[in-house]
Amino acid sequence: MKIVETYSHLNGLEYLLVHKKKLFKEIEAVVKDIDADKYRTKVSKEKTMLGKLLYSPEEMNAAFHERLSKLGWEESRVSYWVTQDAKLIRKTLTMDKDDQKKEIELHGYKPILSYNQTDYVKDRVAIEVQFGKYSFVAYDLFVKHLAFYVGDKIDVGIEILPMKSLQIEMSSGPGYYEGELYNVVRQGRGVPSVPLVILGIAP
């Protein structure tokens, strides 16, 4: 496969190329090493494409997982406490997890433990490979990467998405690079407030 398009949000790519160039080279090598044609294994049951062989998102995800895991990219989780009071959440947002809980209890509210999980983290860089439903992409960009950044666990997040040319040949309805690029640009230059790199890939 190959990286067809790259979008840098809040200088995410520039940060990688200056401070984490080796990691970015790893990602490029992983993408290049995956032969998409091996994963054109799903027989379509949709009326408009009945019987057509499509790319399998599950198998492509597994291919990325195998390669990234071998290079030391690991799943990571950030836990935090929430409550129903917006002012209190603003106050505790950047606190340590234990301090969040104490502060919420101090104000007479019940703290609720929550967490965000990301598929791959290495040396303060997070990767999400997203071949799932399109709604998951927004969650990655506007919640997951941001939570890890605010929690001081990462310096930049990377989202790997299929180009539209690949997405229309896949067996589910994942998000695609061009559509998600529009969604990010539409929010304005500072939203989400986390440096990101969005990669569009295709066979």
From TrEMBL:
A Pfam short name: Endonuc-BglII
InterPro entries linked: BamHI/BglII/BstY, BglII-like, Restrct_endonuc-II-like
Keyword Plastid belongs to the record: no
CDD domains: BstYI-like
Keyword set, alphabetical order: Endonuclease, Hydrolase, Nuclease
Gene Ontology MF terms: endonuclease activity
Protein name: Restriction endonuclease
